[in-house]
Amino acid sequence: MIKLGQINTLEIMRETNHGIYLIDEEDNEVLLPNRYVPQSFKIWDKLDVFVYLDNEERPVATTETPYVKCNDFALLRCNQVTEYGAFLDWGLVKELFCPFKEQAFKMKPGGWYLVYCYLDEKTERLVASSKTNRFLDNKELTVEPFEEVDLIVSHPSEIGMNVIVNKKHSGIIYKDNIFRDLSVGDKVKGIVKKIRPGNKLDIALGQIGYRNIEPNAERILKELQDNSGFLGLNDKSSPEDIKEVMQMSKKNFKKAIGALYKQRQIEIKPEGIYLVS
Q: Cα–Cα distance between 51 and 70 in angstroms, integer?
């Protein structure tokens, strides 16, 4: 079965004036227009193509890879808004449609929006929605505390930054756990810090507790090596200075330098930290 909005591996069946027709194992056909046809090919060669609907609502294939596929999230730019809705740039000739009813906030040309791409069962068209929360579900979690997860930054709130966890669940990174600049659409790694009642996920950008000592210690050692064995910070430095230089909290910084000091890898002096030769 040829899947709309996905990469399909199909065989070349025949050549026409408009392009080549590709076929799947169930003998379903789709046209690959001339602009995408390889310079050299043989009948029954296999091609990886993305399939979507053209302006006539007919399935069509392309060798180009869109910025988002069906059932996935991406940050896309709005090219235009018409009486029907917004049209987003997803890297293909035909723009991705986002109806007004699927806009969390009214989209404007030139704006960037985090959207979810899905197949509308009524129209059988690929559409976008910026109401991303409705495609997330925390009823049955597939993650556990201290597990590393993939995050997509969703939107800011008064208490922190909302994130999409493993493209399945919603979570939040509280302000006091954010030690680097985050923008909507950023894809980063995180850790499940805590699961609160109602399956609410607290997420941290770094590992938790003593799990955090080793990677932070490695970062400090690298900073020392890159700066001739000296770092102008110590356990008396302000949280702001530590955050600016090392992108970590003072608490985690103190744990890390404490571990390095016990291992006799550094010396801690009033003016800063020295790498032990």
A: 10
Determine the pLDDT at residue 122.
87
Residues 227 and 187 in one domain: no
In 3D, which of 45, 63, 61 has the Cα closest to residue 53? 61
Asked whether the beta carbons of 276 and 231 are under 8 A apart, the reply is no
DSSP secondary-structure letter at 69?
Answer: -
Under a CB-based contact definition with an 8 Å cutoff, are residues 155 and 163 in contact? no
Has residue 224 been placed in a domain? yes
Two tokens at 163?
């994130």
- Classified as helix, coil or strand, 41 is coil
Per the domain annotation, does 140 fall within a domain? Answer: no
Position 45 in a domain: yes
pLDDT value, residue 52? 95
Helix (H) or strand (E) holding 171: strand 169-174
Same domain (yes/no): 218, 176: no
Q: What residues does 152 pair with on adjacent strands?
A: 164, 187
For residue 243, the enclosing domain spans 210-275
Rounded distance between C-alpha atoms, residue 242 and residue 254, angstroms: 10
pLDDT digits (tens, 9 = 90+) for 226-268: 999 999 998 999 999 999 999 888 888 998 998 888 888 899 9
Asked whether the predicted pLDDT for residue 207 surpasses 80, the reply is no
